[in-house]
Amino acid sequence: MPPVGAPTSEATCRLPSVALPLHRLLEPGAAGRVELLTDLAEALRETGDFERAESALAEVIESASTAGDRVLEARAVVIAFVCGC
User: Fold this and answer.
1) Rounded distance, CA 29 to CA 45, Å?
2) Who has the most CB within 10 Å: 2, 9, 43, 70?
3) Torsion over CA of 23, 19, 56 and 31, rounded to 10 degrees?
4) What b/e string do you get for 44-63 counting C-beta neighbours within 10 Å, with b at 16 or more?
C-alpha cells in the first residue's frame, strides 16, 4: 500500500493527460497564471518532466519575488527543492 498522499499508479497514469491541457490554459498574462504554474510544475514533476517543471518554477519564483509574494515564492522554492530543479 502506498503512503498516505502518495499518487497511485492509476493517478500517475492520468497525470500526463492533465498536465498538457493545464499548460495550454496558462496563457501569458492570464489572471491567476503564476499561482496555477505551481500546480502545473507539481504535475510535471509527477510525470517526470523535470525540465518543464523547472521552467515553470523559475517563472513562479521570479514573478512572486517581483510582486513581493513571499508565500508563493517559498512554495515554488520548496517544490523546486523536492524535484531537484
Assistant:
1) 23
2) 43
3) 40
4) bbbbebeebbbbbbebbbeb
- 43: nearest Cα among 64, 23, 28: 23
Torsion over CA: 65, 15, 30, 52 (sign): positive
Confidence of residue 62 (pLDDT cuts 50, 70, 90): very high
Residues 27-56 have pLDDT tens digits of: 676 667 888 888 888 888 888 888 988 999
Q: Which three cell numbers stand for residue 45?
A: 514533476
Question: Domain locations in the chain?
Answer: 9-83
